[in-house]
Amino acid sequence: MKAMSKWIFALGLLGCLALAALPAGAATYGFDNLAPGTSIENQTYFGVTYTSQGGDSAVYLGNQPNFGYISPDNTISNFGFLIGNTMTMTFTTPQNSFGFIGGDAGGDQDHFLVNAYDAANNLLGTIDTGVFGGNPLNPNNIMVDNYLISLSLNNMKYVTVTAFSVDGGAGILIDDVQQCNPIPLPPSVLLLGSGLLGLVGVGWRFKA
């Protein structure tokens, strides 16, 4: 009976360790806590550092004509709204899942390209949205022309976003960034688990 209890304890401990190592749920966030016009160039928010070729990544008020938002009211972009001015989003911790919504409040057609890379600058994957949108300009400035980017690739270190002009279109803004970090097991938990398993092993040895 005692041997069975020890086996149950050991299996339960291993189960807890396995659960602790599982990835956390995806977190979605916007930039509504920052004032429109705030520079986010080389700044890190929620584990993502934003840079642009023009050195001008910034927060924009989406709730204005020709802009648009998903979660009120702010969005991010750069001068030129990513047309010929690539934005790079670099992760503090490599990601296995990342996404965002890109677009605007309508009135034109849009098109953008997303590339994902690992820490060695190897291209992991590409999403080309093709041309989308073309809806009438939304009077409430909702991002009615939008494209959901969802990447599921191992060990993404950074992502680049570039927009293309379509019939003189004004490019895109980004909202509702989403990421899911694999959370490594804390060393203290691993140490505790190893110690407990060691004690169980010692107990079995002395009982044998």
Overall geometry comes to globular
End-to-end distance? 14 Å
| SSE pattern, N- to C-terminal | HEEEEEEEEEEEEH
From the alpha-carbon coordinates, what is the Rg to the nearest angstrom? 23 Å
Looking at how many chains there are and whether they match, the oligomeric state comes to single chain
How many independent structural domains?
1
Q: What do we call the CATH topology?
A: Jelly Rolls
Please give the largest β-sheet. Answer: 8 strands, antiparallel
Overall mean pLDDT stands at 82
CATH class: Mainly Beta
Strand content: 35-45%
How do the helices and strands line up, and which of them pair or pack?
Elements: H1 2-20, E1 27-29, E2 43-45, E3 48-52, E4 58-61, E5 74-77, E6 87-104, E7 109-110, E8 112-117, E9 123-128, E10 132-133, E11 145-163, E12 173-180, H2 187-207
Antiparallel strand pairs: 1-12, 2-3, 3-6, 4-5, 6-11, 6-12, 7-10, 8-9, 8-11
Helix pairs in contact: 1-2
Give me some keywords for this one.
208 residues; alpha+beta; Jelly Rolls; eight-stranded antiparallel sheet; two-stranded antiparallel sheet; 2 helices; 12 strands; globular
Q: What features would you describe in this structure?
A:
The chain has 208 residues and is of the alpha+beta class. 19% of the residues lie in helices and 38% in strands. The strands form 3 sheets. Strands 1, 2, 3, 6, 8, 9, 11 and 12 form an 8-stranded antiparallel sheet that branches. A two-stranded antiparallel ribbon has the order 4-5. The chain has a two-stranded antiparallel sheet with strand order 7-10. Helix 1 runs antiparallel to helix 2.
